[in-house]
Prior knowledge:
Number of helices: 7
Distance between the termini: 43 Å
Subcellular location: Membrane
Keywords: Membrane, Transmembrane, Transmembrane helix
Transmembrane segments: 42-66, 78-104, 124-144, 151-174, 204-225
Domain Rhodopsin: 99-242
Shape: elongated
Family: Belongs to the SAT4 family.
Order of helices and strands: HHHHHEEHH
Oligomer: single chain
Amino acid sequence: xxxxxxxxxxxxxxxxxxxxxxxxxxxxxxxxxxxxxxxxxxxxxxxxxxxxxxxxxxxxxxxxxxxxxxxxxxxxxxxxxxxxxxxxxxxxxxxxxxxxxxxxxxxxxxxxxxxxxxxxxxxxxxxxxxxxxxxxxxxxxxxxxxxxxxxxxxxxxxxxxxxxxxxxxxxxxxxxxxxxxxxxxxxxxxxxxxxxxxxxxxxxxxxxxxxxxxxxxxxxxxxxxxxxxxxxxxxxxxxxxxxx
Length: 244
């Protein structure tokens, strides 16, 4: 492809540039861009199902606190914001999947599609910031006795501090990585953008480590309870819903 800046091309050169494939297919493979094979429907079904389950569980919890305990805590507020932001990002995600955008991202010439990706990314960081913070605060409330700073206290607080710093930094990075700001979704503008691949790769390992802490910490407490096996299994399953 030409290395000439898109903005300085003639109309004919732009048309020729946009008509080229964004990336050549590997040797021995043929691209099927018109109707690529995928399992998008399954992915959407799982995502929507998990979202509905999470909303039902959250509303039941909120109802119990408001009606029976007549109180709310900061984690309920954080969870409500997280549920709202996650529900908001479902629409652009659904739209991009239906038009095959995740397969054709390298061929984009419409800035509005890139803008949807940008909005999804920043909204996702906000969702994770509020959701994971709410979970760690809840684990601290449930499993920390309050009279001594045991390992639960330190794990919850250190994890909370790290995740707040990471997701806040990620949100700020994606707002400030391009100059001018519009270049984040319009690559043809003159300007510069910081390389996002490093934070994308780091996020994979960070999410895995964070989810392991969220899952393992309550399990270590549940399986130490002096209760029947049936009750411990039930409680273990309940606390596993945090991974949703």
